[in-house]
UniProtKB/TrEMBL annotation:
<dbReference type="InterPro" id="IPR008920">
    <property type="entry name" value="TF_FadR/GntR_C"/>
</dbReference>
<dbReference type="Pfam" id="PF00392">
    <property type="entry name" value="GntR"/>
</dbReference>
<dbReference type="GO" id="GO:0003677">
    <property type="term" value="F:DNA binding"/>
</dbReference>
<keyword id="KW-0238">DNA-binding</keyword>
<dbReference type="InterPro" id="IPR011711">
    <property type="entry name" value="GntR_C"/>
</dbReference>
<feature type="domain" description="HTH gntR-type">
    <location>
        <begin position="12"/>
        <end position="80"/>
    </location>
</feature>
<protein>
    <submittedName>
        <fullName>FadR family transcriptional regulator</fullName>
    </submittedName>
</protein>
<dbReference type="GO" id="GO:0003700">
    <property type="term" value="F:DNA-binding transcription factor activity"/>
</dbReference>
<dbReference type="Pfam" id="PF07729">
    <property type="entry name" value="FCD"/>
</dbReference>
<dbReference type="InterPro" id="IPR036388">
    <property type="entry name" value="WH-like_DNA-bd_sf"/>
</dbReference>
<keyword id="KW-0805">Transcription regulation</keyword>
<dbReference type="InterPro" id="IPR000524">
    <property type="entry name" value="Tscrpt_reg_HTH_GntR"/>
</dbReference>
<dbReference type="InterPro" id="IPR036390">
    <property type="entry name" value="WH_DNA-bd_sf"/>
</dbReference>
<keyword id="KW-0804">Transcription</keyword>
Length: 238
């Protein structure tokens, strides 16, 4: 690895970091639309990652509609925003990025508050939603997966007992449901949803408010990235 590597961490982490860094450079115009990215060998050396990790990052960005990979010719920038974000912007007045940031703040706080009220029956209900979500993902039934995902999140929101947050999010039910199906468009990353929900559920069952808040924030960040949206984390413990 390059001693001056830009990225570091486990293989899965550096792939995600590479996706985020390339995405940022596209957004900033460093890699403008129509331009070819630097050669893969050069990029891998610059980032200090393996060619395999870089190829995975490029494949993800291509799946989001930002890049086009032309065999034997290179990798070209074809859009600044993911196809999901572009479609979202046509349908809703609030940007997809803004909406994920809203969920990041409110739903993580709901997870923290929920730990004060959880009963054994509530824990069993959340476990049931998580199990059905996992089964739907394994079956590649994305519609069912998004519905159980919504039910899981909505139950936590209701458990917060914060009526201001509950009513605010009720105004955005259609937005929430749409945002929860978008991450499943990258089917090869759907297993990450399972892992993230298990961490949220574990923290909730232990009634560890801070851990539940942190796990929910990590999940919203992950879901946003799978939909092609990147924004700064506001908690450096994640």
């Amino acid at each position: 690895m390059n001693p001056h590597a830009v990225l570091n961490g486990k293989t899965s982490q550096v792939t995600e970091q590479a996706v985020e860094l390339i995405h940022q450079r596209i957004q900033q115009g460093i890699y403008p639309i129509g331009a070819a990215l630097p050669a893969q060998r050069e990029l891998a050396t610059q980032f200090g990652i393996s060619r395999a990790s870089l190829r995975e990052a490029l494949t993800r960005l291509a799946a989001l509609g930002l890049l086009e990979i032309k065999a034997g010719k290179g990798v070209y920038v074809i859009a600044q925003h993911s196809q999901m974000a572009e479609q979202w912007d046509l349908e809703y007045p609030v940007s997809l990025k803004d909406f994920y940031q809203l969920r990041y703040i409110l739903e993580s706080f709901c997870a923290l508050l929920a730990c004060e009220y959880l009963s054994e029956q509530d824990k069993a209900t959340l476990q049931q939603y998580e199990q059905r979500l996992e089964a739907s993902i394994h079956e590649k039934n994305w519609q069912a997966a998004s519905e159980y995902d919504y039910a899981f999140h909505q139950y936590i929101i209701e458990l917060s007992h914060n009526q201001t947050i509950i009513q605010t999010l009720k105004l955005h039910i259609d937005h929430i449901k749409k945002s929860q199906i978008l991450p499943f468009t990258q089917a090869n990353l759907a297993f990450k949803t399972i892992q993230e929900h298990k961490l949220i559920l574990q923290a909730l069952c232990q009634q560890d408010g801070l851990a539940a808040e942190k796990a929910m924030r990590a999940h919203i960040i992950g879901a946003a990235q799978r939909a092609g949206v990147y924004f700064s984390r506001y908690d450096n413990t994640i």
